[in-house]
């Protein structure tokens, strides 16, 4: 990376200033190229796959089975528009910054930073949500006292931070292995479920008032169309974080060729699995939509019901489900590190966070800082809700899982809107840049993404159970904006994303 030219060191549009850095700065922040198409596919699928074991099922409580199905279809359409958009933008702007990079080139430094903040909320909090599900599955398998869950969280964060730090190749190999194991476990689950389903009796067992119908046979939409819309935030969990794949752009061997293929193959894999889990899991005899509406381990509940006299089957699948959760935990920690790294390398966050490991070339400071923040939020909520006793602690675990899930989804929706807006602006503002892949749904697909994401946000805000979480996201973003206005905007650095944006702003 060359030194910043003198023409870029003055005050730029948006009131930002660039600080001069020599080549040593970027040499200390180098990344290693390793990922091919299947590594990128595994990064996308692995990030999401935990959402097919836990989290999505809370939507049964708000919309019933039909509400969950239709919400899932609507959200799938939103993600189709989003993934096509980022599949076009990521090879055209192959930088680690991803959402921040897209917004920086389209909406300037303020737009880039605010978009980066939205995405930061998602990637800091999503691993924390997954960690609560990991503790639930692990506790179910081992009988671990729930009062020890915070210790378990710390252990998991430490182990998978280490795996992410000790080399890109190791991280991707772990990602591919755990993703394949998870998909194999889900395939076994789906095949087994076909012989145990009683759809009307179990999937349709929620009454309009939210109570259980002992004999089933209820409406597909017990809470009407309003229930469908209220379920949108939970359906997001079936796809949340596939958009992280572009964060690997500077570690991809050939991002212009492999990035679009990896993203779209990942989406297709997840869409098939999402349909199957929504159809089959609640239809299994002895399970049902009502019970799944509050379950932290819905897939494991299904295995227990299908194989009540085969204790080893429950334990074995519990391990597979745990691996699925680990797959997402591991891959989103990866994304979290790259997201913080990109913003700090450009000076939006403190630049010290962007130094990479001298031997392994991984952004270890960024990963540690993001993990510490996510773990800290978990612990604060845990002890604020009576952590310590078994009964109270389990309640605290439920609160962490549901509230943090909605906080992560809120940040993600804001990020999706910003990325879709970036796509539309880049089509108009930079029509002639090289685009190795063009979205077949184009601007209309991006508009649909914006509309669905905005509706999802609206229903999150209306839900009193999650409004506090939304407020804390707004507070985090407000603090970040104040920091950038007072400090960060005066210390920007000409990273690849900034260099690209400044060069094309002159054309």
Automatic annotation (TrEMBL):
Membrane topology: Multi-pass membrane protein
Transmembrane regions: 34-53, 65-87, 123-144, 150-170, 177-197, 224-242, 263-292, 312-335, 365-384, 404-425, 437-460, 466-486
UniProt entry tagged with the keyword Transmembrane helix: yes
Gene Ontology MF: a single term: transmembrane transporter activity
Pfam families per record: AA_permease_2 (PF13520)
Compartments where found: Cell membrane
Superkingdom of origin organism: Bacteria
The protein's name: Amino acid ABC transporter permease
Species in which this protein is naturally found: Devosia insulae DS-56
